[in-house]
Amino acid sequence: MPSIAKPIATHPTLQRNALGLTIRDYEGSMSTLCAGCGHDSITAAIIRALWELDTQPHMVAKLSGIGCSSKTPTYFLSGAHGFNSAHGRMPAIVTGAAAADRDLLYIGVSGDGDSLSIGLGQMCHAIRRNIRMAYILENNGVYGLTKGQFSASSDIGSKSKRGEPNRMAPIDPVRLALSLGATFIARSFSGDKEQLVPILKAAFAHRGFALVDVVSPCVTFNDHEGSTKSYKHTRKNTLRATQADWVPPQSEILAQISKSGTTSVTMHDGSVVNFSAVPKDYDPTDRRKVAAYLDDQPANAVVTGLLYIDPNAPDMHELGQSSPTPLRDLAYEKLCPGSAELDRMQEEFR
Amino acid sequence: MPARWSTLDIDMDVVNALLDEKFAGKKALRESNHKALLLGYQYAKEHFECPLPFRLEKMDANKDKILIDGNTATALGAIYAGCTVAAWYPITPATSVMDGFKGFCEQYRKDPETGKNNYLIIQAEDELAAIGMVLGASWNGARAFTSTAGPGLSLMNELLGFGYYAEIPAVIVDVQRVGPSTGMPTRTQQSDVMMAAYASHGDTRHILLFPANPNECFHFAVKAFDLAERFQTPVIMMSDLDIGMNDWVVPRLTWDDSYKPDRGRVLDAEDLEKKIGKFQRYNQEDENFVAARTLPGVSQKGAYFTRGSGHNKFGGYTEIPDEYQEVMDRLKKKHAAAAKFIPEPEYVPREGAKFGVIAMGGCDPAVREALDQLDRQGTPADYLRIRGFPFGDVVERFLAKHDFCFVVEQSRDAQLRSLLVLETAVSKEKLRSVLVYGGFPLSSRHVVQGILSQI
């Protein structure tokens, strides 16, 4: 793969978005991951979602930890600043970056190793703070980069490549997020682009922490018979709970949605998430109903879709009542009290 | 008490004013205390020889001084430096730095136009996260800091190495306490120095500042932000419990309104517009071996990948030895170049001095008193108070000039002495130690005894 360079020329008939950019303008470097890796499909979905959203590439910051999935920010949006941090530490870095500038779109890419073991604490607290970011957890049930150890999302009974079964209970990021008060929770599958792209668009529009747990099979270490995160097992056991589509603000489709009576949720920026398939008694804005629904499904079902959303919860900046101007852009004169004030206030220290 | 006041000939108006202050809301107590005061005063005047041979005299020798603790002064420094993001985890004795910062933010950082806060303080879930938040905010162009103590700094080692290698500014205040491990959280020590200088695995070196009192805590805090952004690297201000949590009489803090924050080498939109070709993050360093950086959210032309993994001067991933070493060698020179920007040591020579005495931080008052005493006893010594790391020419010359020097410090393993041996041309036989590390602030008699016993 790395020996093949990307062509420089763009096909003249390639479609352009509202910014006049083609989808190629949202790509990054050539992937060095294994052929058939689920992560590359997710990367393609991210690229498509950003292109369809007319996102300005430089207004995105893409961050990751360490692992195969954490390599992927290089493979999309070369026009955006990237940050490949330490293992499990991406949530803290994003929190600081978001604190400095509330206007950028933050995309955090992580894996089940990075997020559910060493990074478990940081992910949980980023959820609690409701940092405005899209957190894409590329979940393959294995430590790919270090060659095949079980991860914390490995199901009981799932077998390693050597045939060893995992005996410890898995951590389910969706259930965990639900109990932590996450304001946007989705699960999808790297092989289901039709479902994943709208979910990503909604995640990018969400004004808070958007968890997208994507089952993303590892062809080299966890795609064998006996693995519960293989392509075969996932396709067989996927249960599409909801199908959600993201509708931009001020579009003609909005009018149609309000008439048709389907479940739709209005986001903070005026866009709408429209659910075209929602099971009976399922309310994606009711945390308890979502939990009950998940409890009711068969044990090995991989429940997918945009499962929970709260578009109104305040994010970190709302909670902190912070300046509408990004903190990093505030003029120094606004921040320094000056010498006269220093003289005056020191009287209290006498 | 009142008897003593009349025998000392104290100014009664002052005493009455103090009583009024103390019992401000309690009329009954105020009145009864005033009565007791008067009765005692009169009794003493009638029954004792007043005033005694020694007495109190009203004066204003502290006219240009204030009474303040180091942590409050540090927080004030962060405000004046224009810091907008703070992330922290509570730990004794550093917590009051953030308490102070929060209070000053509430006082000075509510925007009169928007009514919103021109700051964000995040109580992190641990120190691993706190330093991550500081790095993320600094990477994205805000001035950010954290305050902690030894155990927290231990946790921060991993990302301090990241900040060093990826060249990201960060300001860390370490209010040192007794270690190792949980140690004695309410006692003072200077035993984080080696860890702070070399924090993290691999070849790393950090910029350190050693304030000696709350006045320096204020000024050095401001300096820390300038250094961090100028050199694109973590800067650790090594305070300690004695300085941080006690009230000290220090000279009034002063501020030059012409101060402009040194944001370091940052290419803005205009610079990038003129740029041809891909931005090369770690290339074209200046005379201080610092390469220009860019901020997210400005221009596609400035986009680059920040990584802790091996990288070349273009900012690309590398495993090629020469490319890796080229960057690492520049980082070593960059750290050394910071010596010219660090506060110079304080040099106090004495006529006839036969040896030198070196100290840092809160040891200063006791060392000065000890040197006065030694001078009177006929043993004058030159004094050098080191105020930061890397060490510069002044330190080297002081070491070269003396046949031997005492390094007075508060750690069992003589950490400042160790750092001097590693980082200067001095031969270690020339350095003798005076070590006082039981947890109490330094006393001059320890210094005098320690020196006299070794000459």
The tally of structural domains of chain B comes to 4
Shape descriptor of chain A reads: globular
Spans of chain A of at least 5 consecutive residues whose pLDDT stays below 50 are: none
Question: What CATH first level of the largest domain in chain B would be assigned?
Answer: Alpha Beta
- Going by CATH, the architecture of chain A would be 3-Layer(aba) Sandwich
Helix content of chain A: 25-40%
Explain this structure.
The complex is a heterodimer of chains A (350) and B (455). Chain A has helices spanning 38-52, 90-100, 112-118, 120-129, 173-180, 193-205, 231-237, 252-260, 287-296, 316-319, 332-335, 339-345, and strands spanning 60-64, 81-84, 105-111, 133-139, 142-143, 149-150, 184-189, 209-215, 238-240, 243-247, 263-266, 272-277, 302-309. With 350 residues, chain A is of the alpha/beta class. Chain A has a single domain (23-327), classed as Rossmann fold (3-Layer(aba) Sandwich), CATH 3.40.50.970. Chain A has an 8-stranded mixed β-sheet with strand order 2-1-3-4-8-7-13-9, with helices on both faces. Chain A is globular. The mean pLDDT of chain A is 93. With 455 residues, chain B is α/β, with parallel strands linked by helices. Chain B has 4 domains: 2-47; 67-251, Rossmann fold (3-Layer(aba) Sandwich), CATH 3.40.50.970; 269-340, no CATH class; 346-452, Rossmann fold (3-Layer(aba) Sandwich). In chain B, 41% of the residues lie in helices and 15% in strands. Chain B contains 16 helices and 15 strands. A 7-stranded mixed β-sheet of chain B has the order 3-2-4-5-7-6-13, with helices on both faces. In chain B, helix 4 (70-80) crosses helix 9 and helix 6 (127-139) packs parallel to helix 7. Chain B is globular and about 95 Å long. The mean pLDDT of chain B is 95. At the A-B interface, strand 2, helix 2, helix 4, helix 11 and helix 12 of A face strand 1, strand 3, helix 6, helix 7 and strand 9 of B.
